[in-house]
Amino acid sequence: MVQVTAFSFKRNQGVEYQIIGPAQRPVHTISKNGIITLAEKLDREKQDNYILEVEAREPITGGESTVVKVGLLVLCLFVCVYCMR
């Protein structure tokens, strides 16, 4: 889980988030408060990192927007058990 946060200083109101790219990406969802969650497991053997483009925009007509890139690194965690005699 990753969270993106943006602020609208001019109009003092909230912003809306949307994942806009890339076209070929694992399915992700983004909540109203900017939390990005996975809708499926990532396979580190197929791809070990992802770059998502997230747009934050003011929800009014003519509102400003910006796009940021969010990097996701898929780590491989092994549980190692050492038996002592």
Fold-level CATH name:
Immunoglobulin-like
Query: What radius of gyration results from the CA coordinates?
Result: 18 Å
Number of domain units = 1
Mean pLDDT: 79
- Give the termini separation: 40 Å
* Protein structure class: mainly beta
Largest sheet: 3 strands, antiparallel
Spans of 5+ residues with little confidence (pLDDT < 50)?
none
Overall CATH architecture:
Sandwich
Shape: elongated
Note the beta-strand portion: 35-45%
| Adjacency order of strands in the biggest sheet | 1-4-3
Helical region count?
0
Highest CATH level, the class: Mainly Beta
SSE series: EEEEEE
The total of beta strands comes to 6
Explained architecture:
This protein is an all-beta fold. It has a single domain, classed as Immunoglobulin-like (Sandwich), CATH 2.60.40. Helices cover 0% and strands 39% of the residues. It is built from no helices and six strands. It has strands spanning 2-3, 16-21, 28-30, 35-38, 49-57, 65-73. A three-stranded antiparallel β-sheet has the order 1-4-3, with no helix packed on it. The N and C termini lie far apart (40 Å).
List descriptors:
85 residues; mainly beta; Immunoglobulin-like; 3-stranded antiparallel beta sheet; 6 strands; 39% strand; elongated
